[in-house]
Amino acid sequence: MVSLQEINNSFIYKFSSYSKTVRIVAWILRFINNSHIPRNFRKCVILDSEEISVVEYAVVRMIQKESFVNEEDEKLKTLRAFKDKNDIIRLKTKILYRSDSEDFKTPVILPSKNELVNRLVIY
């Protein structure tokens, strides 16, 4: 599968909404992946949730790589940051011991001054 790193980062910021950005990138990645497999094995139906999730994680990783060097970055020094299994920098909080979803217990760390993050918040 082709990764988002092969797509130009400036391309991600050209669309008006976060959901449109994710869908367009997912369609582009599907097109690239379909071009490498035989015609009768290609995906032709609507995007599935797995494809959307892969792109959303890739977009978050891309935003974090632009803003933070790694989880030991100077900006994150005072926080309890760690990388999860998807290579996304998250925050350990006091609600870690609560029985809830991992996304709630360990929120993703995103920069405040990023145009795509602002679109994500509006989304």
- Cα end-to-end separation: 27 Å
What order do the strands of the largest sheet run in, or round the barrel if closed? 1-2
> In angstroms, what is the radius of gyration?
16 Å
SS-derived structural category: mainly alpha
Outline type = globular
Strand and helix order: HHHEEHH
Catalogue the unreliable spans: none
Largest sheet: 2 strands, antiparallel
Oligomeric state of the chains in view: single chain
Percentage beta strand? under 5%
What percentage of residues falls in helices of 4 or more residues?
40-55%
Number of helices: 5
Q: What is the mean pLDDT?
A: 83
Question: What's the number of extended β-strand segments?
Answer: 2
Task: Chart the SSEs and their pairings.
Blueprint: H1 9-12, H2 18-34, H3 49-67, E1 81-83, E2 89-91, H4 102-105, H5 115-122
Antiparallel strand pairs: 1-2
Helix pairs in contact: 2-3
